[in-house]
């Protein structure tokens, strides 16, 4: 039965996916023929997730490596699974409850709510698995893992064969606690007032918004004054005045109530006279105004604002560090909803204690300071932003706002001036919860922490000593920077969905850490216990992904065969949050590295290098791409743009181009089928015809190139080599070169060419399979009777021994001549359909033999008339650059030389301006240092393209000058 005219991806892809699954093609160890294993752990997508371009890119690269190793006979495992995604899943389920009119989370209570979460997970949690299958991902789906597998209430839907991941997580927590690696403490965290939980830095979006900076006076205690002096760069006095206050600027006036000090730089001479003095916080009841010390610290920037910074250690990360260094109390002002606190003793009692602390008469523990509520009664219970407005009004009304002169026109239109509060309207960076979309509050809370300093050493050594290689190299520098400056890792979250912390408390607050409540009760001697309501951060559980998915702590066969794993392919943005923590935790738990190579990639952006966002409207949906172009075109595009460390720019235009590539491959296979050039048994055919020897050698060369590229994780080099070979060497050249042999050759030559073409097309299909699995599997099954499916076909091992030097030289000479004629024709604007004569002189014997043996092909493909051997080139001949002979195109009577010169010179002038502008930007150190990396890289790439274009134009002008 003849092949269809086109490849129907929408019909073939689900059919092939079902065939692979039914055959168990992707099971761990499938097609194994050697002892070595090769394992990749999928970065587990959130159970709430849907496939986006980042997933599509990341998983394409993993699948290329997995399919390549599986075809080479490795004992291969690509471990799939999903993360339970605590905050995201809880949000989705709460939305579902609200939209369907069911009781809220609070009304249901914890147990009933978690039952709803498990129901939701069973119904929607497999969405991304189905979408990854549509992309062609060859995971062992039978082993699909889940980070909450084995937890209470788990119905085992969608992860039937997952190890009890929950048991592993709890065991590790308890062991790390008993080793002193986990503790409970009060520290500053990112607090989400909507979800009422701590969140990680990765869940915070810092966005630029319109903001205000207020300038206020903090009066000096006891009416003290000092001479405030400002000087210019030369040391000349520009301002000198007596002040009884110190001026500060703030974007968050409501936090002034929790100030513990005002800090200035130790080198700031303006404030030297008042260092160590007390100043008054200008808000709150006058009779209980708090005094705070003026201290020095390296943190304040003398050139920014007034150079004086209020220190609110319980509500700002920078202030927190200053407060720790200076022993300044941390006064928390807000509750879990982001409202001003309304608990505790009265304001006057709290302020009296705080005043005693400022005067050095009393010290507070961190818990005692946290218990003080320094919010005045009239502000208690107010939302933080309402409190901000009230604080600004109170300070301004008291005359403690810094005033500046403002010009205005009176009723008669006359210019006047007046004093107004100094408020700068300026853009500020503000943290938002990436899911709640509310402003995140840095806040002092009680949380569980990993003492990261105690576990970071082995993780640093693993990379320093070369046990683990991070690619690109810039990733290693980032890794060292983060780990050498590591802070305690907050691992608790105030959610219900997640691994509940295995700690129980008695009535006195003593806590007992145990794997089960029964163990905790035994440790407590039978006391009544209450379990800690918090759950573990998902980064803690996913940090155990490599061993948890393989059945640890059980001594499983999978742990023996597949751990440590091989390569981790993931985004550079989670190098610290996930990659580094996996290394730390595997080292801490089993004293092994989790993988030997980390391949980091950047964010996938649009064709202009901009981040994709729904707001901008530049989001590319990979599933829509698969529907329109097929999965293979998207996968090939992903592979082609995967330059290590490069900017990943995706466009529909690129995808369209690679869809055309699939069509080109299909058409070449149809040509082979129509000429009965199918059914290769895989053995390298014997060849005597030069063109057949040549294409066998070219196939061998590209196999070596592809293997070397994939070995080095240069996916783009592998894709580009295959594209150039399949489209260029096979479809464009070999198909054309073979036609005379297939149509006009003798029976022996025709049979040889059929055998060679069948083998070459098969090799194209085999070599392309890791990148383009669907069309290649379809062609494999169509073009002959096979012993195995393509996914299990042996990867070729032939190499340079198949290259015939003479055939290689001859055919590449022929191709070079044809391409040179085509190039000059295009540069000189010779009409495409016009056949032109060619002249030649000083032709070597080798060149003559190559020409004579391929004359008909050369004339046809170069659209060439007759070849004339001459002693001298006639006037108006454009010389060609060809080895072993001097060829030329007589063009004087074919083109208007002056018109071509004018056109090229005009284009060159325009191009020179563009090149000059780009060179200027790249030569400016400020641009290179401050512009985003992707902008700098894009400019460099554009410059290289323009310079290449300029070179071609100059070469064309040079040819015109010769004419």
TrEMBL record:
Keywords noted in UniProt: Aminoacyl-tRNA synthetase, ATP-binding, Coiled coil, Cytoplasm, Ligase, Nucleotide-binding, Protein biosynthesis
Motif 'HIGH' region, residue numbers: 45-55
GO molecular function: aminoacyl-tRNA deacylase activity; ATP binding; valine-tRNA ligase activity
Record-annotated Valyl-tRNA synthetase tRNA-binding arm domain positions: 896-961
Family annotation (Gene3D superfamilies): HUPs, Isoleucyl-tRNA Synthetase, Domain 1, Valyl-tRNA synthetase, C-terminal domain, Valyl/Leucyl/Isoleucyl-tRNA synthetase, editing domain
Domain Methionyl/Valyl/Leucyl/Isoleucyl-tRNA synthetase anticodon-binding: 692-839
One Pfam family this sequence matches: Val_tRNA-synt_C
Top-rank taxon: Bacteria
InterPro entries given in the database record: aa-tRNA-synth_I_CS (IPR001412), aa-tRNA-synth_Ia (IPR002300), Anticodon_Ia_Val (IPR033705), M/V/L/I-tRNA-synth_anticd-bd (IPR013155), Rossmann-like_a/b/a_fold (IPR014729), tRNA-bd_arm (IPR010978), tRNAsynth_Ia_anticodon-bd (IPR009080), Val-tRNA_synth_C_sf (IPR037118)
Motif, 'KMSKS' region: chain positions: 611-615
Domain Aminoacyl-tRNA synthetase class Ia: 17-641
Reactions the enzyme catalyzes: tRNA(Val) + L-valine + ATP = L-valyl-tRNA(Val) + AMP + diphosphate
Biological-process GO terms, alphabetical: valyl-tRNA aminoacylation
The protein's Enzyme Commission number: 6.1.1.9
Cellular component aspect of the GO annotation: cytosol
Residues annotated as binding ATP: 614
First-tier enzyme category under EC: ligase
Subunit-structure text: Monomer.
Domain free text: ValRS has two distinct active sites: one for aminoacylation and one for editing. The misactivated threonine is translocated from the active site to the editing site. The C-terminal coiled-coil domain is crucial for aminoacylation activity.
Xref: NCBIfam families: PRK05729.1, valS
Family: Belongs to the class-I aminoacyl-tRNA synthetase family. ValS type 1 subfamily.
HAMAP family listed in its UniProt record: Val_tRNA_synth_type1
UniProt-recorded name of the protein: Valine--tRNA ligase
